[in-house]
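re: that chain from earlier
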Amino acid sequence: MADEVEQLLREKPRRWLVTGAAGFIGSHLVERLLELDQPVLGLDNFATGRRENLAQVKKAVGAARWKRFRLLEGDIRSRATCREACDGAEIVLHQAALGSVPASLEDPLAAHDANVTGFINVLQAAREAGARRVVYAGSSAVYGDHPGVPSVEDALGEPLSPYAVTKRVDEQYAAVFARCYGFPSIGLRYFNVFGPRQDPRGAYLAVIPAWTAAMIRGEPVYINGDGGTTRDFCYVGNVVHANLLAATTSRRHSLNQVYNIAAGEATSLKLLFELLRARLAPRFARLAALEPQHRAFRPGDIPFSVGSFDKAARLLGYAPRWRVDEGLARTVDWYLEQLAPAPRRSPGASPLHAAPAF
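^ sequence. v structure.
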């Protein structure tokens, strides 16, 4: 299915808008689209996106393909900016958001403005511009306190954070736009996406970049709770794959739906700690003695999470292409390159003395 989609896009390119293009997921979408020779407009206000991400995309795709990319610096909370961005776009991949549960607890109004008002602005502008569809980033946070494991799309609980509310409201607005205006969209409920370019800095770090950076820097690793909390860690390549499937499906009954995009693997925080330590220990011998430090559970966090992707498999042809361990290998290599690049060996130096042990 993936090869068919990529062949289709190369034969019949679309005009794409990626909101949040300088972000972690957005930059990976831009990179893959440019690799497939698609013209792409990226929109970002750089509140959480990073120019370094786009620089890495440019390096990855090469100068010739980079010419197909254009950046519009602006904010989805501006209706005028959204109209400008959507003008001429055939497919909108909407990734821009304030995507942090703790940040939404501290400032629910900011989360609402970006995630709800911004989302409506994008939907309305895409509809007015005659776009074919919007594919938007949802979240597994919408499952809230529902006890069912694995999570399935039609079994929702009560939300546990303002962030979760905003993502549920987005799904409802998308459904209303389909019902009232006939404008199609597809929502993708992401489960704990990770991979290269996920920011290891800032106040609201995701667990994989936080722990990886801490291990590399020799800092403490903190586990919220007893370590039994589970997450469905989904490598970013799977998310890119799902977006392309959702953007190109010709099945009418696949539109105006929401889908879990997950790896289908429940990984406890205790196991994640061991996996990361094992990946990094050959480079940093001190990690053999490292033990995590436990602290209180974080408000708004779901204790157990794993997603069923059966619906996405049936209606989109989705299946994860990278398992957790495969994704971690790629991710850890990237963080090592960014945070602890290997010392360069002087010409003629013996490999036995090329790099110090840590």
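The radius of gyration is 21 Å.
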